[in-house]
Amino acid sequence: MADIEIIPIPTRILTEKDDIVESISKYAGDKITENDLVCVAESVVAITQGQFVRPEELKISSLAALCCRFIPDYGSLASPHGMQALMDREGEWRVAFALFCGFLARLIGIRGLFYKWGGEQAALIDDVTGTMPPFDKCIVYGPDKPDEVAESIKKKTGAFAAMVADVNDLKRSRVVGVSRGLNGELASNLLLDNPFGNASQKTPICVIKNYKAYQEAKG
Q1: Are 66 and 169 members of one domain?
Q2: Which of 116, 140, 164 is the last residue of a domain?
Q3: Would you say 131 and 47 are in contact if contact means Cβ atoms under 8 Å apart?
Q4: Exposed / middle / buried, residue 178 (Cβ in 10 Å: 0-12, 13-18, 19+)
Q5: Residue 214's domain is classified under what CATH number?
Q6: Same domain, 56 and 114
Q7: Domain around 132
Q8: Which of 151, 158, 177, 206 is exposed most, by the fewest CB atoms within 10 A?
């Protein structure tokens, strides 16, 4: 089995005027083979889809102001703006109900119900400062149809597979979207050291060389 190698790909700042598939082909196309896995940060995919809102565009409800107090300080939903952005997408009473049930469940040792019941965006929203400038002044939603995006990247670049991932510096790597045939859990474990750089590094894309052989060897 060939050794894998993770190669971060530098780009300029990508915006809602860019097509993420075309951008990956432009910046990484000459580095990708049929044996490789292409990974892209979910926040950048979302930005190129226009999936963001500026805090000043939100009207904060009293319910959002109350609910955000029950989120840990490090969470993207801990601010009134982050919580309101979620409520605008998923419905305020759905979010409030999920938060209440999640709080009760935690009292008996069950975790994660809020993010399970609060809607798809509950686990995906990045609050201000959560992504690259100039979008660090925006609240960024999760990307739309990430599996389809991954499949389009795979076809455009000729890669073995593609993945949209949510990775941070706290050793958390989560699959958001995958192309067909990819073992997402296996692939996400390779990103725990967060090879993405969405700020000054401008490396929101990475290529995992020889991933095909790695997945086949792992069964």
Answers
A1: no
A2: 140
A3: yes
A4: buried
A5: 3.30.1330.100
A6: yes
A7: 52-140
A8: 158
Check: CB of residue 38 under 8 Å from CB of residue 205.
yes
47/140 Cα distance (integer angstroms): 7
- Mean pLDDT (10-residue bins), the chain, 219 residues: 85 93 95 96 94 94 95 88 96 96 91 91 82 78 96 97 84 87 92 68 86 91
Asked if 87 and 38 sit in the same domain, the reply is: no
For the chain, what is the domain count?
A: 2
- State the Cα–Cα distance between residues 76 and 34, nearest whole angstrom: 37
212, amino acid identity:
K
Structure tokens given for 160: 């073995």
Closest among 149, 49, 19, 141 to 90, alpha carbons compared = 141
Same-domain check for residues 57 and 135: yes
Asked whether residue 43 falls in the same domain as residue 58, the answer is: no
Using alpha carbons only, give the angle 193, 140, 93 rounded to the nearest 5 degrees: 115
Q: What is the tens place of the pLDDT at every residue in 138-185?
A: 999 999 999 999 999 999 999 999 999 988 766 677 899 999 999 999
Strand order in the sheet with 173-178: 5-9, 205-209, 37-41, 161-167, 173-178
Whether 91 and 43 share a structural domain: no
